[in-house]
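Memo to structure team: turn this sequence into structure tokens by end of day. - J.P.
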Amino acid sequence: MKRGIFRTSVAVFAVLMLTGCGELPNISEQQADLVAEYAGGVLLRYSSKYALRLVKNDVDEDGVEDSVNGVASGAAVTAAPDDQSDVSPSPSPSSSQEASSSPDPNASASPKESEEPAATPEPTEEPKVGLDELYNIKDLKFSYSSAMYTDRYPKNSSAYEITSQGGQILYVVTFKVKNTGSKTVKVNLTSRPFHYELSVGGDTYLPTLSLLPNGGLNYLMTKIKPGKTEKASLIFNIDRDKKGTKGNTLSITEGEKTAVVDL
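Reply from structure team:
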């Protein structure tokens, strides 16, 4: 009975709200139930004290309603999101752009373009000097005299004659040693570490042990009187097919000094 009275009261209230002050229309009991259910849902929707309400309260804490939408019986209604088709989302940087913009901590710094690789130092050559500076013996003057190919040397002496062997030929380089002083000069080159190297046609040769009376230039041991000149020779065994080769050179080195003689 109470339920019927409540339904009728709610229905009348709803009709008055919908029709204003006009005459009340005649409605059936079923229609009154529907109107009562709708009106009850509306009333309960705005009641903050109704804990079992089916519809989420759309009223902010300030009492202002965000929006009013239709309510279906027994179902919650969710407001549709605003149309944001005209709003373009701000583009986020791609992963490739982030990777290119962030520096790699493990990347090694590239060398400056202006830097050049260090030049390899060239081997230091011994300073070239003259024969007198190289031998450096007071009152003695050394000079190149001649060079020749021969099968034996010296030709006018049988006691100390040196002959070539097999496919070789002798190459004799002769120097003159002159005493320009007023006293006899004793010469002894056996204790000095001279290095003699002959270059013939791209090949190099070292002098042989000389059996000459004064020992040859490489083992010169003699006495030279004032104003006198003595010959001192170097004898090399070279390949016979080198005979007649021109443009030969002889390098004489002691320590850091080198004298080069064009033959």
